Sequence to fold (357 residues):
Amino acid sequence: MRSGISELDDGRLEFISRSDFLFDNGGVINPLVLAYECYGELNAAKDNAIIVHHALSTSSHLTSTEKNPAKGWWQEMVGPGRHLDTNQYFIVCINNLGSCYGSAGPDSINPATKTKYRTDFPRVTINDMVRSQKLLIEALGIKKLHAILGNSMGAMLSIAWMTLYPNDAEFLISISSCAQAYPANNANRFLQRDITKLDPAWDEGNYHFSGDLQGFTTARRLGLLTYRNWTELNNRFVNKAGRESIEHYLDYNAEKFTSKFDCNCYLTLLDAMNTFNLADENGNLTEAFKDIAAKSMVVSVNSDILFTPSQQLALYDGLKNAGNDVTYINHDSIYGHDAFLVETAAFGKYISDFIKA
Fold:
């Protein structure tokens, strides 16, 4: 089969490149496969495209479609007349390299062995993800994006994209993210990794099913605690028991996640986040950001304990000091890091107002 794009039964599209894809850390795969979804129509000038970069645990499925009516992770954000208006824009969401929803990663088949890559999949960086997606966008014939935006890990890709390809978009939006891995975030991901690997059932990555891994489920419980603000959790579950307790909340959501997300892919993505750093050895971001031509917006959440407002301000300051035209918003919410998933009306207005400016 030659390189190209094909449509899958559920409406996803599949980009296949038959050239060797080289990773930052020296690994190689062939073919490179990326699953993605599109919403709206690409105009004749091919200048109305917006890339939405998804967070670690989500996929390319932004909103329901005729072929895939399942609710998307940004269901109310994308569609005709919505904040990401498909009457006006061509929205592209690409499943990240290393993930497990159709793109190449530890859970996909190694053509050399006819078995899953598992831990033999090359070590992935955020820049690797961006460079793979650049190939797809070029295959679509898009030379200039209207906007590029992301949430959490997804915004790491958006920011990195504009450092690698500084003239590729008119607008850059980063929501609840950062320009480099921070020690507290690394510590949390380090604990999740070790909890997972200490489970004998992980078996050096040769397990049968992620949902059977108690270590992975426990690690995900730990991760879930950082997605909401502890004050909100305390108020929500105080004096609650049974199905309304914090224990049930953590168990239900962790088990739901690990039953559908591959463990090796999860560890791969955690590692990519841990090694992300656009700053120089002195912590300076000016050099990385100096050529970014896009008008930028950094959106923080005042109750976010995962990517704190101080991290957002550091990103904002880095862009501003590099001479970028950058706006900062500190969103007031009780929902912590998950606010962009919960309060879509507010975040949608930030985005739609900005990309019309």
The chain has a mean pLDDT of 96.
